[in-house]
């Protein structure tokens, strides 16, 4: 089992989208059955590996249509706005990395008036659990991956963060999930993460004050 990256000083936060920032009712078990994909196979990979180009495009469009329908019914997750407001107040950059198609991701984000400079979808990079999109954001921000927290609700999020050398935060949404030990931080909702980041900022300011008090005066 992978040992999660320690969560120390966080200078940037990247979010998953579905059931992290906004709700999603996507039933991938049902969709796999409809598309002939086995339960233990990644659906996107299954479709990408179909040799018949016409059939592959047809199934890709089926998934996109399903995602767009879900996007129109989505709602903002509890404490999402409070967390984003706090991060903005602290000048901590934020981004979204999702396995969604770009159309659905942008529809959800714009519909709920969420603001992100970077929105990375599966059309841009290999989808999670591949770390490519997370590594890209780290380079754009010019931050060490160890100082960027990736927040999500599924095991793919934790695996992608680990492969990118980033700490991860698992939002359980009150569920008993079997992969919690793979996360650096586990919270029941986004409000729990806000609390942790506030505590971290307070401890950092206290440490800074102690250092300044110990600096000898030049007089």
Structure write-up:
With 219 residues, this protein is an alpha/beta fold. It has two domains: 12-22 and 76-214, HAD superfamily/HAD-like (Rossmann fold); 28-72, no CATH class. The chain is 45% helix and 11% strand. It is built from eight helices and six strands, in the order βααααβαβαβαββα. It has helices at residues 28-35, 43-48, 53-72, 80-89, 102-111, 132-141, 155-163, 190-214; strands at 12-15, 94-97, 118-120, 148-152, 168-171, 185-187. Strands 3-2-1-4-5-6 form a six-stranded parallel sheet, sandwiched between helices. Helix 5 (102-111) links the parallel strand 2 and strand 3. Helix 3 packs parallel to helix 5 (102-111) and helix 4 packs parallel to helix 8 (190-214). The N and C termini lie far apart (56 Å).
């Amino acid at each position: 089992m992978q040992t999660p990256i320690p969560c120390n000083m966080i200078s940037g936060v990247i979010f998953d989208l579905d059931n992290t920032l906004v709700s999603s009712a996507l039933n991938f078990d049902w969709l796999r059955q409809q598309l002939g994909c086995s339960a233990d196979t990644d659906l996107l990979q299954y479709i990408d590996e179909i040799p018949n180009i016409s059939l592959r495009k047809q199934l890709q469009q089926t998934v996109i249509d399903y995602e767009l329908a879900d996007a129109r019914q989505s709602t903002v997750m509890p404490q999402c706005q409070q967390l984003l407001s706090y991060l903005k107040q602290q000048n901590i950059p934020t981004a979204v990395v999702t396995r969604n198609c770009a159309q659905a991701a942008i529809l959800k984000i714009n519909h709920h008036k969420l603001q992100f400079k970077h929105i990375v979808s599966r059309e841009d990079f290999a989808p999670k659990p591949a770390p490519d999109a997370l590594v890209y954001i780290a380079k754009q921000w010019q931050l060490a991956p160890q100082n960027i927290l990736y927040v999500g609700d599924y095991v793919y999020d934790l695996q992608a963060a680990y492969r990118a050398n980033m700490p991860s935060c698992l939002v359980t949404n009150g569920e008993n999930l079997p992969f919690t030990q793979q996360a650096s931080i586990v919270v029941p909702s986004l409000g729990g993460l806000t609390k942790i980041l506030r505590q971290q900022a307070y401890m950092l300011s206290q440490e800074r004050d102690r250092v300044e008090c110990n600096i000898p005066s030049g007089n």
